[in-house]
């Protein structure tokens, strides 16, 4: 029986260290981590690796439920997949496990709360952006990708997949940047 930790943050400028330290302290022999949005399972290759690796009796450990996912359906599907493999899911804060029936109920409620919280965050963000636009102070979000590097790599003959790997973004982002640079619409 292995304890496998999974840590996730949404953006590259966020820090994984606190989660990693908690998972190590809990005795996780293997810890996989990634910097990707939890809004869906798309692009979460480390999570997919963990799910492939799980064996009967293993335990998937996360520090908080929202590290596993922000959508109730996704979280419940992940828990179901773990159970189909005979594995358990444990959340450290608050401490809940799928080893018992009560854990299932609590995780379902926590998943719904995480999804609702995500909606509230997006709504507040949207309201704040609209107010900043009305006040004339909105400058847009912080650019995390060097757009000049993307276009220069393309000019050097690199393809979108290679550019995405070199810059650390998705291929779709590369396409968007290049289309924006070339004055096209996707």
UniProtKB/TrEMBL annotation:
Keyword DNA-binding annotated: yes
Residues at the active site: 10
UniProt keyword terms in alphabetical order: DNA integration, DNA recombination, DNA-binding
A Pfam family annotated for this UniProt entry: Resolvase
Entries under InterPro entries matching the protein: Homeodomain-like_sf, Recombinase_CS, Resolv_N, Resolvase-like_N_sf, Resolvase_HTH_dom, SSR_resolvase
Keyword Lyase: no
Residue ranges of domain Resolvase/invertase-type recombinase catalytic in the record: 2-136
UniProt cross-references to PROSITE patterns, sorted A to Z: RECOMBINASES_1 (PS00397), RECOMBINASES_2 (PS00398), RECOMBINASES_3 (PS51736)
CDD domains in alphabetical order: SR_ResInv (cd03768)
Similarity comment text for this entry: Belongs to the site-specific recombinase resolvase family.
Protein known as: Recombinase family protein
